[in-house]
Design goal:
The N terminus is likely disordered. The radius of gyration is 36 Å and the shape is elongated. The protein is α+β, with helices and mostly antiparallel strands and 720 residues long. The chain has 17 helices and 25 strands. Helix 16 packs antiparallel against helix 17. A five-stranded antiparallel sheet has the order 2-1-5-4-3, with helices on both faces. Strands 7-6-10-9-8 form a five-stranded antiparallel sheet, with helices on both faces.
Length: 720
């Protein structure tokens, strides 16, 4: 070490150095010997008693002065605990740091140089010359005279202080891997290598109720420090060999009770592990080493072991009783964070599975569909309630639905699933988009009553939804929105922009002025591209929401008509949304194709007695032109005759007949101005009432009713 006196007693370096005497224990280096100075004759001891070293050595203060090039100009690290730190005058200070910390610490040092504001109490690891590491509290202070550079004060972490710091640091993430990594980094203060191995069920988010010896499966969740490990050594993400898992399980469950154990040296480790394969997998190197194994135990009857933490150190520095107690206390204080991360992992997977279940599978002959769902990062509040769906309706139209339920987690997922399924059922029953939203609005209000919603600690008020129905014959989309962001439409000529929708409050917002949901109808000719999305795709703290939507419109407008739509959707999401985001990102792209003009025909007939005959004549001529099979033509003519006859009998106003050649069937539609819903009766074919519907039911593969602004349309499909 190099200790150079300072001529100035007012500099931070001298102020820190002057305080060193109050922290260095009396008894000198021998009394304060740290792990690097332990004697060889203790290698066979299982633990070292607490009275082997004075307790005042737990916190030692040192100081290092840096010039403006961040090189060491003076240092005072004479306390024994700093033995092995190569703080040589003239060398870069960052040589004492692990490689992964160099950019961050360098940025902090230069920030203090530029601003003159101190950076206090950073928990930092420093490299010793023998490869071991020392955990310190590092503070960066500006020099009294700016030209003198910086003073870095270093406090070797007292174990009690480290316990507190570790407890506050662990659990800041809900990701189980990051939580395990934080625990391993905290354990490193007691050794040279620290690892956390979790039961595979814990790693995947499942619950662990019991552990049968010999059948446990452990996966390495964390390992520090980050270095090149020997071949065969288990690193994060790898499963431990079955023999190693069994041995560790047996080690921490002696006498059917979890307990920490210490294997003091390499000979004992080899004796316990036995197999060379297990030695390569668990022992971090060829040097003589001892290990402390501490189970991660959840209190209960019986207690549940989530995994094992292992702290390795050189055998010439055995664990003292107090150190083993500190390790157990740290693990005991933080194991609940591991369990919380496990629960979050499980909930995250469940909600994610539901989200992906709702994603549209395919489009159809008249529309091409692509969707991307990018969940929130695992350490956020949880997967949100975004959903997107697209499905063909029985009458040939296609439903496009996107929604965003307020909140995160299972409560939002349950509401999301219920609203999604209800929307699909109502749309399939023929309801218009505004009518579906009215039902969803009532559902959200019912879900949020005092008994079922608010009492459960979750509220879905303000959830949003947008529903569009694409008609491939008229090439129009009927769209209704409840508080959702407007879709973006790209016309065939490449012009892109958000649709002008009348704003409406979200679902269940009883405090808002009640007003009916509106239906907006707009043209979507073949080649048009419609983008429906949730706010996670366009929200950016640096931009207004309108600018975010504008960015989306620009990105979607670059999609070429020949581009593969799914690949284009992924490109749009990657261009707009960061990899790590706090909210779900959902995008649905729909490329309109529609029916060819020669595959559809429409006739308007007066509601007179000769309407069925006129309809049969028009349809018969068209089916001959389409070269339809005789049996299909006969069934279609009978079907049209019955539907038109029913319309003439029960409705007023003109009758519309439409025939569509779709896929493997003929879609026959008859519209009228009546508002009565046709229903099958229990009577037979010879009964006067309901005879037509029985014929329709027998001739078709499916049939139904949808409502329009002027009446209804009865549709039916005949196989070709």
């Amino acid at each position: 070490m190099h200790s150079t006196p300072s001529p100035s007693s007012s500099s931070p370096f001298e102020l820190v150095s002057g305080a060193l005497g109050r922290y260095i224990p009396s008894g000198g280096a021998a009394a304060a010997a740290g792990p690097a100075d332990a004697q060889d004759d203790r290698t066979t001891s299982r633990r070292v008693p607490d009275n082997a070293a004075p307790s005042r050595q737990d916190q030692i203060l040192g100081a290092v002065n840096l010039d403006r090039d961040l090189r060491i100009s003076r240092c005072n690290l004479d306390a024994p605990v700093f033995a092995g730190l190569d703080a040589v005058v003239g060398s870069p200070f960052v040589d004492l740091l692990p490689p992964g910390d160099v950019p961050t610490v360098t940025r902090r040092l230069r920030q203090v140089l530029e601003t003159g504001e101190a950076h206090v109490a950073r928990i930092q690891r420093l490299h010793r010359g023998d490869g071991s590491e020392l955990v310190v509290s590092l503070s960066i202070l500006p020099a009294a005279v700016p030209q003198e550079g910086l003073t870095v004060s270093v406090i070797a972490m007292a174990k009690r202080l480290h316990l507190y710091a570790a407890e506050t640091a662990i659990g800041t993430s809900l990701d189980i891997g990051e939580t395990a990594q934080s625990l391993a980094e905290s354990l490193l203060a007691w050794g040279d290598v620290a690892a956390v191995d979790l039961d595979f069920a814990v790693w995947t988010g499942e619950g662990v109720t019991e552990q049968a010896q010999g059948r446990i499966r452990l996966r390495r969740a964390a390992l520090v420090p980050d270095r090149a490990w020997p071949e065969g050594y288990v690193t994060p993400g790898d499963d431990l060999p079955s023999d190693a898992s069994r041995l560790l399980a047996q080690a921490v469950r002696r006498d059917d009770a979890p307990q920490a154990i210490v294997i003091p040296d390499r000979e004992a480790v080899e004796r316990v592990l036995g197999s060379p394969r297990v030695l390569r997998a668990l022992v971090p190197g060829d040097r003589s080493a001892g290990v402390a194994c501490i189970p991660l135990v959840l209190d209960g009857a019986p207690p549940v072991v989530l995994g094992v933490a292992e702290v390795w150190r050189r055998a010439d520095s055995p664990f003292r009783d107090s150190e083993l107690f500190d390790l157990q206390e740290l693990v005991a204080r933080t194991v609940h964070h591991v369990d919380l991360a496990r629960q979050h992992q499980r909930e995250h997977k469940q909600v994610l599975a539901l989200q992906r279940r709702l994603l549209p599978r395919t489009g159809g002959d008249t529309i091409e569909i692509a969707s991307v769902y990018q969940p929130a990062t695992p350490d956020s509040a949880g997967v949100g309630g975004d959903w997107v769906n697209s499905f063909p309706l029985p009458d040939g139209r296609t439903a496009l639905v996107v929604g965003d339920v307020v909140g995160h987690g299972l409560g939002a997922a349950a509401t999301m699933g219920q609203l999604s399924m209800e929307a699909r059922a109502l749309l399939s029953a023929g309801l218009a988009p505004d009518e579906v939203l009215e039902h969803l609005d009532e559902t959200v209000s019912l879900l949020d009553d005092a008994e079922s919603g608010l009492a459960a600690g979750y509220s879905a008020l303000g959830s949003t939804c947008c529903i569009g129905l694409y008609d491939p014959v008229s090439h129009h989309v009927a769209l209704s929105s409840a508080g959702h962001l407007p879709p973006v439409l790209v016309s065939p000529d490449g012009h892109a922009g958000p649709l002008a929708l009348h704003p409406h409050p979200g679902l269940g917002t009883e405090f808002a002025l009640r007003e009916p949901f509106r239906v907006h109808t707009f043209a979507a000719p073949p080649g048009s591209l419609l983008a429906l999305y949730t706010d996670g795709l366009v929200e950016d703290p640096a931009l207004s929401i309108d600018e975010g939507i504008g960015r989306l419109a620009d990105a979607v407008s670059t999609v070429h008509p020949w581009d593969a739509l799914q690949q284009a959707a992924r490109h749009v999401v990657s261009a707009l949304a960061p990899v790590h985001q706090r909210d779900d990102v959902t995008l649905l792209l729909a490329r309109m194709i529609g029916y060819r003009k020669g595959d559809t025909a429409t006739w308007r007939l007066p509601a007179r007695d000769d309407a069925p005959a006129r309809a049969r004549a028009q349809v018969s001529a068209l089916l001959r032109q389409w070269r339809t099979r005789d049996d299909t033509r006969d069934n279609a003519l009978l079907l049209i005759s019955e539907l038109v006859t029913n319309a003439v009998r029960f409705a007023t106003g003109p009758i519309t007949v439409r025939l569509i050649r779709a896929g493997h069937g003929l879609l026959c539609e008859v519209g009228d101005t009546g508002n009565g819903r046709p229903r099958l009766s229990r009577g037979g074919l010879l009964d006067d009432g309901g005879r037509g519907l029985h014929i329709v039911h027998r001739l078709t593969t499916r049939w139904g009713v949808r409502w329009t602004d002027t009446g209804k349309v009865v549709w039916a499909e005949v196989a070709r």
